[in-house]
Design goal:
Layout (H helix, E strand, L loop, with lengths): L9 E8 L4 E7 L5 E5 L3 H11 L4 E7 L6 H8 L3 E5 L5
Parallel strand pairs: 1-4, 4-5
Antiparallel strand pairs: 1-2, 2-3
Organism: Aequorivita vitellina
Protein name: IS110 family transposase
Length: 90
């Protein structure tokens, strides 16, 4: 008898967005994650997620700042849930 997963695994990404680099922290339901820096490009993060967390439902959060909402538009375009927060709330 084959069994099918009943819930899609979840990936949570917190981003500290700056002009020159992004500080990324990833966590799932099973591990608290790791932090790393990467170039400030949404496509690079997408490629990382596709390589390491292919079948996960992705939620992203970052604080509003000087870099605007282009990352948010990219993330929602990837089908990810994206939240842009007030810096005072983090």
């Amino acid at each position: 008898m084959k069994t099918a997963p009943t819930a899609q695994p979840k990936l949570y990404i917190g981003i500290d967005i700056h002009k020159r680099s992004w500080k990324i922290h990833c966590a799932t339901d099973l591990f608290s994650g790791k932090s790393f820096s990467m170039p400030p490009e949404a496509k690079t993060l997408y490629d990382y997620v596709q390589k390491n967390f292919k079948d996960h439902q992705v939620s992203v959060a970052y604080e509003a700042g000087c870099c605007g909402y282009s990352a948010h538009r990219s993330f929602t375009g990837f089908g990810w849930h994206s939240i842009v927060t007030n810096p005072a709330d983090i």
